[in-house]
Amino acid sequence: MNKSFVIGAGLSVVFLLLALLSFVWTPYDIETLDIPNKLQGLSGSHLLGTDHFGRDILSMIMMGARTSIAVALLAVGIGLLLGVPLGLIAAAKHGSFLDELIMRGNDLVFAFPSLVIAILITAVFGASAINAIIAIGIFNIPVFARLTRAAALPLWERDFVLAARVCGKPPARISIEHILPNITNLMIVQGTIQFSLGILAEAALSYIGLGAQPPTASWGRMLADAQTLVSIAPHTALVPGFTILLMVLGLNLLGDGLRDWIDPKLRLIRT
Known about the structure:
The chain is mainly alpha-helical. It has a domain at 67-246: MetI-like (MetI-like fold, Orthogonal Bundle). The chain has helices at 3-21, 57-92, 97-110, 114-125, 129-155, 159-166, 171-207, 219-226, 235-262, 264-270. The model has no long low-confidence stretch (mean pLDDT 91).
């Protein structure tokens, strides 16, 4: 087991445990304002200080972990559930009109980043965590579709697939029984990477007011609230900023370690 995997898994597990713990306990109630104790520094009563409303920052970080993980996880789920089948269909119908239609549709979605998609969605339905999930999820669909198609195409020329075709299995059954199991590991690695990007996207959307809305805690909104307080109480910006950094770093290291573990050739190159 390489160091990237161990460090990445460790960081990811810490934030996952914080998110799970927030369902049953936080040091303070984040909906309770304590104005007399606002902008306190790190102390025994508030390990990470308080914000401009006197709320405990550690409690906000724990609740924000729940929000960020939920949004990113659901967005990746949307990408997997819709993108992988589209990629399998495109690979099975390689060179056909359906293949071209799917891939050109992917190119069209790629022309609009998740931030632009979020702006379009929120302009119609309003800003919320649900709309952020939809926006990030829509952007994830072509990512998984293109990767699935690229990984599946060479497999259609392999002997075990040719044998299945000779036996009379339809393309849909071949895709499910023979192609999909052979690219699952690749999807897991890409899912980890997209999960880290989803954390960043959720923070960015919340930062500009298009993600989770108060009183729901969000790391991006914590940064937005702290941008005018950096000179007065720098911890209000540094804590959520470093939290996002460590979370994304952990997931990227985890994905890097998984990739090395799945592909022995990369492991040999690095050693």
